[in-house]
Specification:
Layout: H1 4-11, H2 24-35, E1 55-61, E2 68-74, E3 77-81, E4 83-87, E5 113-115, H3 117-122, H4 126-131, H5 135-139, E6 145-147, H6 151-158, E7 182-184, E8 187-191, E9 198-201, H7 203-213, E10 217-218, H8 231-253, E11 260-265, H9 271-282, E12 288-291, H10 299-315, E13 328-330, H11 336-343, E14 349-352, H12 354-360, E15 363-366, E16 370-373, H13 394-397, H14 402-410, H15 415-440
Parallel strand pairs: 4-5, 4-14, 5-6, 10-11, 11-12, 12-13, 13-14
Antiparallel strand pairs: 1-2, 2-3, 7-8, 8-9, 15-16
Helix pairs in contact: 1-2, 7-8, 8-9, 9-10, 10-11, 12-15, 14-15
Length: 444
């Protein structure tokens, strides 16, 4: 006999017949899920219809895997997929003039860039960006942009898990202590890392802030608990995120402004919770999906998550108009091994500060998947060797030697990190172009 908790969980969207309800731990999770306040059912929303200003087309489906080559169309141009999305945290790539990367493949050719609404909320503020004509005009970019809700930054900064991307104030002894954050049904109250002031961020305020920024693609507010969160607390977190996302979606649908919204899938490394989240979020009229939250400790755990989530998201095509699909974005993943593995499951886009961060620390990505650290003493006398003979970026094609780049880092010249960041961005574009070619030839 099926336990009552499992029956209630199934009624909430956890489909009957899934084997995860067959063992005790899953029955406990199902009971916890059933005890949570439910989010609004998909029937409370109108069905999704393709947008005139945003669409995703699948150009080729690999015969070897779930990988696909596609194209996302936005008001500011198209994005080829699978594609890498560079992170311009404060509406700027670290150490790189992003206007160089708008058009030129040699300089990275970033079709889509990711800006952090959390940081822009604190400086200069959504109103200031809106007064400037929106984020595209403010940062002098003509191609597509995506912004997040700020949830990742709010929760990860509070847990001090991304200190490498923090403002220099946070890296000093003036860092605000843990425990400066309050989470409730209404939203989250946190302390600004810039001036220590309390900031009240609700799902609705997060959407309105992103409306002021005006990016082509936006993301609703979500809660991001630490990796080692107990299972019971993780259930509460996913349930809260679902309610927040439903509220965010209502706010967005009331004033589209030619923006698309991605629904975020949560649940940590729990197969049960990922199933619940994917089935609920895919039932809502989002324009695409983002896989977020804790993605595991390694590629194996990441693939476990994708193995659960992607079949559900791909099945969403059965509820869409013929020939229509929705793109899937993987949040915060940028290493080559994970990208290749995730692309085989059907993930379309990836964002990460990985290549520019490597460049800041003297590391260059090299053809074949290896990397070198230019600060190593062995490069001091490599006067005629460029970073990568097979690379066509301006750093390599114009003959900047390894010895010169080594000197720049030893002399602490800002030009060093800039040149390596340009090179690494170009590497990522070559990587994604190669992956698309492999899929088109059914090799991936």
């Amino acid at each position: 006999m099926t336990p009552p908790g499992a029956r209630r969980a199934a009624a909430m969207g956890l489909r009957r017949g899934r084997r995860w309800l067959s063992y005790q731990a899953s029955e406990q999770i199902a009971a916890w899920v059933a005890s949570e306040e439910p989010a609004p059912p998909p029937s409370d929303f109108e069905g999704w219809e393709p947008r005139e200003f945003f669409r995703f087309e699948v150009l080729h489906q690999s015969k070897s895997s779930g990988a696909r080559v596609g194209r996302i169309h936005t008001p500011h141009g198209h994005v080829d997929t699978p594609g890498y999305v560079a992170v311009a945290t404060n509406a700027a790539l670290k150490h790189v003039d992003h206007t160089l990367t708008d058009y030129s493949e040699e300089d990275g050719g970033q079709q889509l860039m990711f800006c952090n609404s959390y940081h822009l909320l604190l400086q200069p503020g959504g109103e200031a960006v809106e007064a400037a004509g929106g984020l595209h005009r403010f940062m002098n970019r003509t191609q597509p942009l995506i912004t997040d809700s700020g949830g990742f930054q709010v929760f990860s900064l509070a847990n001090h898990s991304v200190t490498d991307e923090l403002n220099s104030k946070l890296n000093s002894k003036k860092r605000y202590p843990k425990g400066t954050m309050r989470v409730s049904e209404a939203g989250v109250v946190f302390r600004s890392y810039r001036d220590g002031k309390l900031v009240d961020l609700s799902p609705e305020k997060s959407v309105l802030n992103q409306k002021q920024l005006g990016a082509d693609i936006i993301i609703p507010l979500d809660e991001l608990p630490p990796f080692h969160t107990p299972a019971r607390d993780l259930v509460r977190s996913v349930a809260l995120t679902h309610r927040w996302e439903a509220r965010s979606l209502r706010t967005h649908l009331a004033d589209l402004r030619q923006q698309a919204m991605l629904g975020v899938i949560h649940g940590g490394i729990s197969r049960e919770l990922r199933t619940w989240s994917a089935e609920y979020i895919s039932g809502l009229p989002f324009d695409g999906f983002a896989i977020g939250g804790s993605l595991g400790r390694d590629t194996a755990e990441l693939l476990g998550i994708l193995g659960t989530v992607m079949p559900i998201l791909r099945a969403d095509g059965g509820r869409l108009p013929p020939g229509t699909r929705k793109p899937v974005h993987l949040l915060g993943v940028g290493d080559e091994g994970s990208i290749r593995a995730a692309a085989k499951t059907g993930v379309d886009t990836f964002d990460s500060c990985f290549p520019t961060r490597l460049g800041r620390h003297g590391a260059a990505l090299i053809t074949g998947g290896s990397r070198i650290n230019i600060t190593n003493s062995r490069f001091k006398t490599e006067y005629r060797a460029v970073l990568d003979e097979e690379c066509g970026c301006r750093v390599c094609s114009q003959g900047f030697s390894r010895a010169y780049l080594h000197h720049l880092f030893k002399a602490k010249e800002p030009l060093g990190p800039q040149l390596l960041a340009i090179h690494n961005l170009r590497y990522m574009e070559r990587l994604m172009k190669g992956i698309r070619s492999e899929i088109l030839n059914d090799m991936l």
